[in-house]
Structure formats: structure tokens, C-alpha cells
Design brief:
With 323 residues, this protein is of the alpha/beta class. The protein is built from twelve helices and nine strands. Strands 1, 2, 3, 4, 5, 6, 7, 8 and 9 form a nine-stranded mixed β-sheet that branches.
């Protein structure tokens, strides 16, 4: 009998391996796709930071997580409005935000129902802070030309030289609204108008602020500490100017949208996010300030007062900054 040529042996071996692999997949794939507990999470946290944690939770618990993301331009506000629109028949089980104002707005509107997962009967948990900051490039700008406070950003020498995310959304909106609460409406409105008259760059998001300052197109940027940290990790030469009493700590918040008993997947997920181990993991990812470095001494908003005037203040912001 003639020997089978070596090349045909290789082909037959490859075919056998393919058949074996097909059999294995036929066994494995149905188990991976088997029905099991799943939750929908409306997530206003940066996707690059959140996805690893969602995956780790799913692997550890077997609970599938289906995230619905926001966009950087309308961060938090878009998803919050979606939740308000779905309040009679919510799709989400969990709300996860990287700031506090919209979470409190949703709570005040009854979106979280009777769920009380936070301290003192709050309907949400807070965990893992970052903070608002001014940034500059120390290689381009000597300290003698830097502002010492937000008030100085209205000076003529900073005209066209400051970058800020569009202030109707995200942490920028929360920060400006907290300044209104602290300064009073008249002083805040005067500052906003003078700042807008200085023609700052209005960016799609805080990461764009850091990039513009690093490119030398703006002298000063108003951004978040996680965006500053990401820019530095990416090789940008940036440094922080502390905001002092006009600074603001920005915690993550998580809340339950639907009723959930103690052992419900949604409640397990909320507890997972706020756990010490996950907060430490979150810090390692660069999404929050490292333990022991959280800024203190900044704004302490009266949230009830801010919420009572939120619509009026938002209209004012739009009228001042919309171009």
C-alpha cells in the first residue's frame, strides 16, 4: 500500500482538529449562552474605566451586566433625562454616575422609588472621589502668569486662553452650579458673563480640555483630576493649580432603579461597586483620586437649594455660554 504523502497527513490532521474543535464549541457555546440573571446598568462613568469592573463582576458572580453608556458631550444629563422619561416603565435596574447632582435630581423626582441603600436613608451610595482642578503646562507658562483663583480667569490677559468643557453637562455644570450656590446668584452671574466674554474654548469634554492645554493652544484648563491623571499617563506635561475653597470633590454614585430585595443581582452590584476592594481597583485604573489624596476644603453645596433652582440656573448658563 502506498504511503500517504506528508502534505496529506497534515491536511487530515488539521481536519481532525477542526472537527474536534467544532465538537468542543458545540458543547461550550450553549453553556455560555445559557439563561441566567442579568441587569441593565445606565452608566454615566467613562467606559474605559467601567468596562473592566463590569467584566470582573460578571465573572465573579455569573450575573450578566448590560451597560447603556452616555456620550462625553452630554455626560450624565442625557442618561438622567432618559431615566426620567422611562420612570413609569424603567428599563434600567441600576444607575451609576460619576457625579452627584443628577443622582440627587433623580432621587428628588422619585426615580429610585423606595430603595434606600445609602447612609441616613439616602437612596444612593457615594464612593470614590476625584476633584475639579485648573491645569497648565509648566514648560510653557511660568508661575508668574498663572491665575490664583477662578475669579482671575475673567482678566483680560486670559482672553481666549482658557479651555473648559461646555458647562451645561457633566461635572462642569455641577461645579458651576455649586459656585452659584456658594457665591450667590448676582455675583455668579456677573462672573459667568465676564468669563464668557473672554471667549474661552468650549470643549466636548474634560479630556479635550487637557489636550488643548498640552498642545499650547490654551494657557489654562478647567477639568477633572482623573482627566489630568490620564493626560499625564499619556505623556502630556501638565500640572495642577489647586482651586482651594472654589474646588469640589466629585464622588461616584450608584442607585437602584427598580425594587430589589437583599439578594437581588442589582443590589449585589451596587454593593460590589462601593466595596473597599473595588474602590481600590478603581483608583488603580486612574478613575478616582488615590486614597489619602482626596481634595478637601472646597465647596459644600446645599443640594436642596441647588435642586430647587436647577432649571432656572441651567437656563441662565445656556443663555450665557451658548454660541
Amino acid at each position: 500500500m502506498r504511503a500517504i504523502p506528508r502534505r496529506w497527513l497534515s491536511i487530515l490532521l488539521l481536519a481532525a482538529l477542526c472537527v474536534a474543535a467544532a465538537g468542543l464549541l458545540a458543547f461550550v457555546i450553549p453553556s455560555l449562552m445559557a439563561p441566567g440573571p442579568a441587569i441593565v446598568v445606565y452608566c454615566a462613568q467613562d467606559q474605559a474605566f467601567a468596562e473592566p469592573l463590569l467584566g470582573e463582576f460578571a465573572m465573579a458572580t455569573g450575573i450578566r451586566v448590560r451597560p447603556v453608556w452616555d456620550s462625553e458631550m452630554v455626560k450624565t444629563v442625557g442618561l438622567a433625562n432618559r431615566l426620567l422619561g422611562e420612570s413609569q416603565s424603567p428599563r434600567a435596574h441600576v444607575w451609576w454616575s460619576n457625579e452627584e447632582l443628577r443622582t440627587r435630581q433623580l432621587a428628588a423626582r422619585g426615580v429610585f422609588g423606595t430603595n434606600r441603600i445609602g447612609p441616613d436613608g439616602l437612596p444612593f451610595l457615594s464612593f470614590g472621589c476625584r476633584h475639579r482642578c485648573m491645569v497648565f503646562d509648566p514648560g510653557h507658562r511660568p508661575s508668574t502668569v498663572l491665575p490664583r483663583s477662578l475669579v482671575e480667569l475673567t482678566n483680560a490677559r486670559f482672553a481666549g486662553r482658557v479651555s473648559i468643557a461646555f458647562p451645561l453637562f457633566g461635572t462642569t455644570a455641577t461645579h458651576l452650579l455649586a459656585l452659584r450656590d456658594a457665591w450667590g446668584d448676582a455675583a455668579w452671574r456677573d462672573w459667568c458673563r465676564a468669563f464668557a466674554a473672554n471667549r474661552p474654548f468650549l470643549e466636548e469634554g474634560n479630556s479635550h480640555v487637557a489636550g488643548r492645554v498640552a498642545r499650547g493652544e490654551a494657557w489654562i484648563g478647567l477639568t477633572d483630576s482623573d482627566d489630568l491623571a490620564a493626560a499625564i499617563r499619556g505623556g502630556m506635561r501638565l500640572a495642577e493649580i489647586p482651586l482651594g475653597r472654589d474646588g469640589m470633590a466629585i464622588p461616584n454614585t450608584v442607585a437602584l432603579v427598580r425594587s430589589a430585595p437583599a439578594d437581588a443581582p442589582a443590589r449585589r452590584f451596587a454593593g460590589y461597586l462601593a466595596s473597599d476592594a473595588v474602590v481600590a481597583r478603581f483608583g488603580a485604573l486612574g478613575a478616582i483620586d488615590a486614597a489619602g489624596t482626596v481634595a478637601t476644603g472646597g465647596l459644600v453645596p446645599d443640594w436642596n437649594r441647588m435642586l430647587a433652582t436647577l432649571d432656572v440656573a441651567t437656563v441662565e448658563l445656556e443663555g450665557i455660554f451658548r454660541r
